[in-house]
Amino acid sequence: MEPCDLLVIHASELCTLAGGPRTGAALGRIGIVADGGVAIAGDRIAAVGPSPGLLARYRPRRVLDAANCLVTPGFVDAHTHPVFAATREAEFEMRVQGRTYQEIAAAGGGIRSSVRAVRAASEDDLVASTRRRLDLFLAHGTTTVEAKSGYGLSLADETKSLRAIQKAAAGHPVRVVPTFLGAHEFPDEYRDRREDYVRLLCDEMIPAVARDRLAVYADVFCEKGVFEVPESRRVLEAARDHGLRLRLHADEFVDSGAAALAAELRADSADHLMAVSDRGIDALGSAGTAAVLLPGTSFFLALSRFAPARRLVDAGLTVALGTDFNPGSNMTCSMPMILTIACLYLKLTPAEALTAATINAARSLRLESEVGSLEAGKRADLVIFDAPNHRFLPYHYGVNLVRAVVAAGRVVVDDRVRTASNPGSPSSESREP
Amino acid sequence: MEPCDLLVIHASELCTLAGGPRTGAALGRIGIVADGGVAIAGDRIAAVGPSPGLLARYRPRRVLDAANCLVTPGFVDAHTHPVFAATREAEFEMRVQGRTYQEIAAAGGGIRSSVRAVRAASEDDLVASTRRRLDLFLAHGTTTVEAKSGYGLSLADETKSLRAIQKAAAGHPVRVVPTFLGAHEFPDEYRDRREDYVRLLCDEMIPAVARDRLAVYADVFCEKGVFEVPESRRVLEAARDHGLRLRLHADEFVDSGAAALAAELRADSADHLMAVSDRGIDALGSAGTAAVLLPGTSFFLALSRFAPARRLVDAGLTVALGTDFNPGSNMTCSMPMILTIACLYLKLTPAEALTAATINAARSLRLESEVGSLEAGKRADLVIFDAPNHRFLPYHYGVNLVRAVVAAGRVVVDDRVRTASNPGSPSSESREP
Predict the structure, then answer these.
(1) Taking CB atoms and an 8 Å cut-off, how many pairs form between chains A and B?
(2) Exposed e or buried b per residue across B335-358, where buried means at least 16 C-beta atoms within 10 angstroms of its C-beta
(3) B310 contact residues in A (CB cutoff 8 A)
(4) Which residues of A touch B63 (CB under 8 A)?
């Protein structure tokens, strides 16, 4: 008998997602093991397979019984904006009353209102609120999060935001991949001198971010009226020249040729893609750029348009999912909620959606050899759901089915104690006066 | 100083919903009190108002500090189907792959598959699963639930289902209003003799249900291909003659004149109404029949059609909301999730949606003097949310913002202990082997 630290056993269905990212007809092959289990040593997976074999082989220090439960890899959220200082529920009401997201932005709301709030916030406050949001991600089964800056839009406020991500992530169970998104919008003070802001991005902000190792990725909101394709190209090339990897907000509302730009620059991901053209799809396919779809945003903006997921799958792209968690266009950090929306409105099957939210999302972050599947040697990130099978996960929606989360080998969320999922919650204090 | 048992204080926003059901332009008037509180004596509300006044007046045995939190009445869910024995996630996948709900039903799935499972289930099993579902409702802030039978479709199995509701509700914090829905579908054995089933409903099942006081309401799935209007009328008239109050599944997929029938029979509610005609709306208005809207079902069936909520509001109807929780066409018991969908797709404001899910839903159950608002003398049902205001509730979706629930004066859900919200959860057992 070999020793191990933790043995998860008796999952009614365990989805390994082993074998690397999937495309095309293989997208829905999720590696189902009945009565499955995972043996964990330290922060790594030692073995995955049927429970009887694991029980015969390992002498664990601790056992998590997953009977009647689904076990999956921890979710990988490929696109989030978690560093903000104020929520924007008033804009939610304005949209319900008929104003569009673009109209609200033009009136000084939207991203620019978040910029004002972040600039006014202290770094410590941003660290605290970002950390609470990481707790929420974790409570809903996400163990790896791509996290963008982008509500600072000045050298000081973008680096403050990226430091807040770094500090919030330090020692946190969620693995965080930071992305510099100084090109999220033109700040008010540069509205009439766009060229100056592009130069600030390329000549000052990107070099500073790269020098201080504040980000792994750079991203640009490439969209008509925001960063046009030529501006986006300059920013991305500067980022690449400084050693940052590339992602791109591409063709969200109109087809501006952003997907082709992402492909041309060999970006790791092109995100949103609601309006992508066939030519853009072809280019992404040739470049090996992952398509990160964010259907929660279409839902939250009450749009009838969703990304053409099936065409992207059929074109052989690596299709991934993200929440797009942000205070304006999608206020949720629940990946199970995104799975439901992806099934209903992108017409991904539950298995395809699970692949997109785990190993394929990991691929979009170049972390496919580290996270996103349950395989020996990988980081021991997994979720135990109160669900008999993977179809149940998007099916039973609006409730949190997570029963336990293991991150880097540690049990960090447990239904019965709720350590990480209900951080603090000082508000429901009960006391004798 | 007067004694009281429980004092909830310092809500950043307390919505009383006082003053009775609302219609038209008043729908969104939710009675906001800043720094609000509620004094509770026994199972009743003693007083509602600003915290300083309550603190000066009452000497409470226990205090719940709701600082930085939203406090609302407990939700009233006006339409649910919680008594079933098997979930139907395989059908969810079939729908994603392009089959319609109607096609799945025609192939032996849908309601009929639930009927087979309920008939095979023991009453004890139904009691246990229904009770777990009531726990879930409660965990998401719902303290009153209308609960339908309708997956038995025989005298024995319908009464078994209604007894299961009764037993599950006994001693449970959620107040349950049982509805007999034997006319949910024609069972397989009566498929070629519909007249015989209508007679069984009218002559045997309804009298038995009324005699044993197993239901307050009777309901019929009045829809083309299910119960036609003349059949529905006969069933509803028989129910009325036996002292049952009336609700009606009306004009969900096509306009069959069901709304007019509900109005003609002075039903307390007409539900769904996605396809309701202007004539139907006028009739409901004249009759005082509440319109119970179920937008989660449109979402879960990925339909582009939602009920014409604004027209119903403008026509002066009492617009209410329900989850329609059921294993086929809407697998959620989260009213906050329904609020989000109602705002985004029915274009109700957050305040209007809150009214519809509380006092107006209570009105549709003739319980408006007992629940649905925070007013002295009413049942002390309230929810404390981790939200700064009521707009935040539909805005931050896919997560459970409930911090505490008080039902009939008792603190039955508390974030820190999670008594009722995580019933049992034997599945995430952790032990030393």
Answers:
(1) 198
(2) bbbbbbbbbbbbbbbbbbbbbbbb
(3) none
(4) 430-433
CB B131 within 8 A of CB B161: no
Residue B103: band (very low, low, confident or very high) from pLDDT cuts 50, 70, 90: confident
Residue contact A349–B96, C-beta within 8 A: yes
Q: Which residues contact A407 (CB under 8 A, 6 or more apart)?
A: A74, A138, A143, A173, A174, A175, A380, A381
Residues of A in contact with B400 (CB under 8 A): 399-400
**Can you read off the two tokens belonging to residue B41?**
């004596």
Strands A430-431 and B58-65: antiparallel
Q: What amino acid is encoded at A356 in this protein? A: A
- pLDDT tens per residue across span B257-286: 999 999 999 999 999 999 999 999 999 999
CB contact (8 A) between residue A395 and residue B348: no
Judging contacts by C-beta atoms under 8 Å, the chain A residues touching residue B350 are 89, 92-93, 96
A2-73+372-418: which CATH architecture? Roll (2.30)
ipTM of predicted assembly, 2 dp: 0.95
Residues B292-322: tens digit of each pLDDT: 999 999 999 999 899 999 999 999 999 999 9
CB contact under 8 A, A433 and B389: no
Report the percent of chain A where pLDDT is more than 70: 96
Does the distance separating the beta carbons of A333 and B399 come in below 8 Å? yes
DSSP string for B182-200? EETS--GGGTT-HHHHHHH
Among B107-121, B170-184, B193-207, B393-407, the minimum mean pLDDT is found in: B107-121
Domain over A75-364 is classified CATH 3.20.20.140 = yes
| A392 to B89: CB separation less than 8 angstroms, yes or no | yes
What residues pair up with A178 in beta bridges, in sequence order?
A147
Shortest CB distance from B425 goes to which of A87, A331, A386?
A386
The 3 state secondary structure assigned to chain A is CEEEEEEEEEEEEEECCCCCCCCHHHHHCCCEEEEEEEEEECCEEEEEEEHHHHHHHEEEEEEEECCCCEEEECEEECCECCCCCCCCHHHHHHHHCCCCHHHHHHCCCCHHHHHHHHHHCCHHHHHHHHHHHHHHHHHCCEEEEEEECCCCCCHHHHHHHHHHHHHHHCCCCCEEEEEEEEECCCCHHHCCCHHHHHHHHHHHHHHHHHHCCCCCEEEEEECCCCECHHHHHHHHHHHHHCCCEEEEEECCCCCCCHHHHHHHCCCCEEEECCCCCHHHHHHHHHHCCEEEECHHHHHHCCCCCCCCHHHHHHCCCCEEECCCEECCCECCCCHHHHHHHHHHHHCCCHHHHHHHCCHHHHHHCCCCCCCCCCCCCCECCEEEECCCCCCHHHHCCCCCCEEEEEECCEEEEECCCCCCCCCCCHHHCEECC
Confidence tier at B107 by pLDDT (50, 70, 90)? confident
Distance from CA of B296 to the nearest CA of A (A): 10
Residues of chain A predicted below pLDDT 50: 416-433
Chain B residues in contact with A334 (beta carbon < 8 A):
398-399
CA dist B342 and B355 (Å) reads: 12
Q: Does position B420 have pLDDT exceeding 80, yes or no?
A: no
Query: H-helix or E-strand containing B342?
Result: helix B335-346
Amino acid at A338: I
pLDDT tier at B419, thresholds 50, 70, 90: very low
Alpha helices in B26-154 (DSSP H): 51-57, 89-96, 101-106, 111-120, 123-139
DSSP B213-237: T--SEEEEEE-TTSB-HHHHHHHHH
Q: What is the pTM of this model?
A: 0.95
Return the domain boundaries, chain A.
2-73+372-418, 75-364
